[in-house]
């Protein structure tokens, strides 16, 4: 019998690039591989492990395809598989960049939670993809074999299949390390050694890399990185290591969060850039329409929108410009007066508040829609996974509904009014320790410093 519909398109096999520690060169090497494969005609799609808004834009620039975030702590296994399947449809290869060191995940979790701790290893186990370890070998030689052997043998259910030696000193250096690794781990695929190259580095600021859209000559950087990589790394052997996605329950139409409205006006520019592509696609799949506007260009949201979303980003670097505009902030106040649902995350929350103090100590008036004052002059790092339980009715869900979120900012709240009745979320950290209530809701306007990732995940 012939089925009346076509067979589903094949799903690309996947591969994960990880490292023993942060700072090993994962991002630059991932970008170089993505661009080199694209230049060879391979339809390669990027994936970023964990809560990261900046690296995915670099992945997209290098590969020419959107990048998706996969987070084993914040996302249910079925959602992870659904997003991976959607990302791999129509591609030849999926290339995931890990987070921190291979086995590093959320701290403070109870014993037995390492299958959903947000680590790269947890994602590799869940999806069934092999790992290529990127090792910064500056300052070591044949000792690298012992280091790599420890990672290969630490967890038998995490398949470390290949290694790239980064920041090598010479051909002799590579030969000595290759011989030592091959003697200790004859089954490991040694893909090559990349020499130290001082100009192949990306500029950074307080939340990570300077955004891809702000990089002055990104295309030149990507092409130079790809050129160097193809001279020293065996891409054919790397591609051959990729494996199919492991079977398991999958969300057919993965939607991490419900849409805040039918017609959503989304702020997007250098000050408001932190959105997850999977969330936006989930909104579209649910039938919502998204329009964009630039607060830095003093644009207001679409007047016909029934929801306005101000994502995180860097408003603290542009506070004077935002405050001086004649359209953006007044249009937010007017929309609030009409009862339009307005939501701000992290930087967006700061802008919905009364005032934002810049790094130089200058206070800039913001929208004044929420009773909070923030400061980037009084800097303190706030970082970690969060579970949030909603306390008041309105987007993103019903009272009592749970969400997985992440917090990462250096701004501080210096003044806040209101009582518990106006609070948005009750929050715990990754280990379940109560952190109190956060955020504000006033009428149709709400926000907090949390970046929402998904509804709280269920069991595997």
From TrEMBL:
InterPro entries: CbiA/CobB_synth, Class_I_gatase-like, CobQ/CobB/MinD/ParA_Nub-bd_dom, GATase_3, P-loop_NTPase. Its cofactor is Mg(2+). It catalyses: cob(II)yrinate + 2 L-glutamine + 2 ATP + 2 H2O = cob(II)yrinate a,c diamide + 2 L-glutamate + 2 ADP + 2 phosphate + 2 H(+). The record marks 451 as: Increases nucleophilicity of active site Cys. Pathway: Cofactor biosynthesis; adenosylcobalamin biosynthesis; cob(II)yrinate a,c-diamide from sirohydrochlorin (anaerobic route): step 10/10. Transmembrane segments: none annotated. Residues 19-207 form the CobQ/CobB/MinD/ParA nucleotide binding domain. GO terms for molecular function: ATP binding; cobyrinic acid a,c-diamide synthase activity. It comes from the Bacteria. Residues 263-454 form the CobB/CobQ-like glutamine amidotransferase domain. The active site is at residue 346. It holds the Pfam family CbiA. Gene3D superfamilies: 3.40.50.880, P-loop containing nucleotide triphosphate hydrolases. GO terms for biological process: cobalamin biosynthetic process. Keywords: ATP-binding, Cobalamin biosynthesis, Glutamine amidotransferase, Ligase, Magnesium, Nucleotide-binding. Its EC number is 6.3.5.11. Catalyzes the ATP-dependent amidation of the two carboxylate groups at positions a and c of cobyrinate, using either L-glutamine or ammonia as the nitrogen source. Comprises of two domains. The C-terminal domain contains the binding site for glutamine and catalyzes the hydrolysis of this substrate to glutamate and ammonia. The N-terminal domain is anticipated to bind ATP and cobyrinate and catalyzes the ultimate synthesis of the diamide product. The ammonia produced via the glutaminase domain is probably translocated to the adjacent domain via a molecular tunnel, where it reacts with an activated intermediate. Belongs to the CobB/CbiA family. Belongs to the CobB/CobQ family. CobQ subfamily. PANTHER family: COBYRINATE A,C-DIAMIDE SYNTHASE. The a and c carboxylates of cobyrinate are activated for nucleophilic attack via formation of a phosphorylated intermediate by ATP. CbiA catalyzes first the amidation of the c-carboxylate, and then that of the a-carboxylate. This is Cobyrinate a,c-diamide synthase. It comes from Rhodospirillum rubrum (strain ATCC 11170 / ATH 1.1.1 / DSM 467 / LMG 4362 / NCIMB 8255 / S1).
């Amino acid at each position: 019998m012939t089925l009346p519909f076509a067979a589903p398109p094949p799903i690309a096999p996947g591969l994960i690039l990880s490292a023993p520690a942060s700072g090993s060169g994962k991002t630059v090497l991932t970008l170089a591989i993505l661009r080199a494969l694209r230049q060879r005609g391979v339809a390669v799609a990027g994936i970023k492990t964990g809560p990261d808004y900046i690296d995915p834009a670099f992945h997209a620039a290098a590969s020419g395809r959107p990048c998706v975030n996969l987070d084993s702590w914040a996302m249910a296994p079925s959602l992870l598989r659904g997003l991976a399947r959607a990302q791999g449809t129509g591609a030849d290869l999926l290339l995931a960049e890990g987070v921190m060191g291979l086995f590093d995940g959320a701290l403070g979790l109870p014993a037995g939670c390492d299958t959903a701790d947000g680590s790269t290893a947890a994602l590799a186990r869940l999806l069934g993809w092999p790992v290529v370890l990127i090792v910064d070998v500056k300052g070591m030689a044949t000792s690298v074999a012992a280091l790599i052997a420890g990672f290969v043998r630490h967890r038998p259910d995490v398949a470390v299949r290949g290694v790239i030696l980064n920041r090598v000193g010479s051909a002799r250096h590579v030969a000595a390390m290759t011989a030592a690794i091959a003697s200790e781990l004859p089954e490991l695929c040694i893909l090559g050694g990349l020499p130290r190259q001082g100009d192949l580095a990306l500029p950074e600021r307080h939340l990570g890399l300077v955004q891809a859209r702000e990089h002055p000559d990104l295309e030149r950087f990507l092409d130079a990185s790809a050129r160097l990589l193809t001279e020293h790394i065996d891409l054919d052997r790397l591609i051959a290591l990729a494996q199919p996605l492991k079977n398991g329950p999958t969300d057919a139409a993965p939607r991490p969060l419900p849409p805040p409205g039918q017609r959503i006006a989304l702020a997007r520019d250098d000050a408001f850039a932190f959105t997850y592509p999977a969330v936006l696609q989930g909104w579209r799949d649910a039938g919502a329409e998204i329009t964009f506007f630039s607060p830095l260009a003093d644009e207001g949201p679409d007047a016909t929108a029934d929801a306005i979303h101000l994502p995180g980003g860097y408003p603290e670097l542009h506070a004077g410009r935002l405050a001086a505009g004649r359209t953006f902030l007044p249009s937010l106040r007017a929309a609030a007066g009409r009862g339009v649902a307005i939501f701000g995350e992290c930087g967006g929350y700061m802008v919905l508040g009364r005032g934002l103090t810049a790094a130089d100590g200058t206070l800039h008036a913001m929208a004044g829609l929420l009773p909070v004052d923030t400061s980037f002059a009084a800097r303190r790092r706030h970082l970690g996974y969060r579970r949030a339980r909603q306390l008041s009715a309105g987007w993103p869900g019903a009272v009592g509904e749970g969400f997985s979120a992440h917090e990462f900012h250096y701004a501080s709240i210096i003044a806040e009014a209101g009582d518990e009745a106006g609070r948005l979320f009750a929050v715990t950290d990754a280990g379940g320790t109560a952190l109190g209530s956060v955020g504000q809701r006033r009428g149709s306007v709400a926000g907090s410093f949390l970046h929402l990732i998904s509804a709280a995940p269920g069991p595997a």
